[in-house]
Amino acid sequence: MAPLPSTAVLLRRRPEGEPRPGDFEVVRRPCPEPEQGQLRLEVLWLSLDPYMRGRMSAARSYAAPVELGGVMTGQAVARVESSRHPGFAPGDLVLADAGWCTAALSDGAGLVRLVPAPKPVTAALGVLGMPGLTAYAGLAEIGRPKAGETVAVAAATGPVGSAVGQIAKKRGCRAVGIAGGAEKCRLLVEHFGFDAAVDHRAPDFPARLAAACPDGIDVYFENVGGAVWEAVLPLLNGFARVPVCGLVSHYNATALPEGPNRVPEVMRAVLSRRIEIRGFIVWDFPHRAPEFRREVGGWLADGSMRALEHRVEGLENAPAALVDMLAGRNTGKVVVRVAPDAPD
Amino acid sequence: MAPLPSTAVLLRRRPEGEPRPGDFEVVRRPCPEPEQGQLRLEVLWLSLDPYMRGRMSAARSYAAPVELGGVMTGQAVARVESSRHPGFAPGDLVLADAGWCTAALSDGAGLVRLVPAPKPVTAALGVLGMPGLTAYAGLAEIGRPKAGETVAVAAATGPVGSAVGQIAKKRGCRAVGIAGGAEKCRLLVEHFGFDAAVDHRAPDFPARLAAACPDGIDVYFENVGGAVWEAVLPLLNGFARVPVCGLVSHYNATALPEGPNRVPEVMRAVLSRRIEIRGFIVWDFPHRAPEFRREVGGWLADGSMRALEHRVEGLENAPAALVDMLAGRNTGKVVVRVAPDAPD
After folding, report:
1. Within this chain, do residues A264 and A154 fall inside the same structural domain, yes or no?
2. Which of A150, B25, B123, B333 has the fewest Cβ atoms within 10 angstroms?
3. DSSP-derived secondary structure for A185-196
4. B 250-309 residues with CB below 8 A of A?
């Protein structure tokens, strides 16, 4: 064993608005050999997720921001390259919070062994991983969909949204997906089996959304905020539930939108229609993980649930891919192939 | 039996902004004698409540608006004046949705017999009635206060707010009341036993509220909206709960406030601090009524819980009293003495 050549992406500057290439720095630095009790990971696939924009900012949130000069945070599928840890052997596949790098040391804490490895292995970062559990647990705990209800979700071709719609169908609901552009809308219906899809870029989007939800909306799974939320609000039925999972349309905003101040409109709807709005993150509901793996794993195995990936080649392209994802230019779960020989 | 002289207050015009005297009409019309299966009620006390502003408006809500030319809606303590109904005898005291009038016919549906009658009997309209149950059930179902937490409430000298603070104290919480003016703030601490009281009219209200909540706010019972809500939002802790019971500062508004649009700020707080915001009305939680009567009835009997009434003399003064209440010019639960000899 010897130091291993390695590349990492650091946060160099906190972005104002949309992140730019100069906010990141790609550095080469060797990864030392593991000491007793440690192991060295070779990163195969890196997951890109919207929450990363929040970690680049110093604003108050549920998790500490990435430090300036620190390695960008991120979950990865990795292979144990060498080990002086009794629990792991070279070649083991693991899920690791390795960050944006090609190699990392670990003391084993927090690693999840991928045994058996899902096919494709990147599913561990998407439909069978954090985004899938986010959809599953947020629906189960806050959305609480009942058969016959209408469940709407935005960013619907993303890994969370596509799982929300498909799980809603499994629960006997009408699933309405909102996405940007005709191609994504086609995928929602044809690939993912949504009952209806609505393009939020259409000039008459609010009217189209209303037409797609003839019985109103009982569960709105919020990933987006902004204009989509404004179109959803008047359609929410009495006792509607709104799990707030993400607000990707806000993340790059540098100021509040122009007036009027619509907070009274939101609160009036909440009161008069007894709406429940509740924020969550996936780690609030760890007790849902076993049933999630059993149910969603079964649906993937029998082909009744589908995933869609957007693959990016090479760690050095991760910064641009994150910018694209925040602007909705991806289609499906974004994963970065970090090791050239990363298995599917 | 013969027709009984009677006075009623009708809704003549839907108000724009603050209701005005011309929106109401006081009419005299005899109340017919009861037919078989009916009884005639003499109204003793009429309850005035903020929800009545909503019923004057045609906007979408959980209940139908009062019709133009219809009798204003309202709950009352009434005495059976004459009866051809087997379940009621003259002299019986009942709680009735009699509306703003001095006499009314009933077929008995929805009447609640006040046996034994609370002392004062007007408690049936306040701390032991709809407002008290609103506080009790909204806290229990949505607020879910835990010992050691901070519970804040606005309109805190009102019948809902004062019950919220006192029940929060019973649950081992720190109770912080928000009210308009020094006299109300004094009452909150000295009469109702709140830990702290903050005057929302003070120019440095947000800073005072923050100082009164050194550990943040875990439950904010929302009766008011507007500037109070804006001061509360930054103080809400992770996993805070916000039962939305009323928005009295909005009810007379004829337009949305000026910008910026603060909805993204609210939603970001909901997401990053996992806040739960949920609207309700008291009738959503009828199953809480028995324990409410047992617990709150016991506290009133042993003197460990208090109420405060604002009494108005004469039905013809009800319109002005409603306008005053919506502007916060009352102190305590507003009841109108409709019958000159109405018992305490």
Report:
1. yes
2. B25
3. HHHHHHTT--SE
4. 250, 253, 255-281, 284
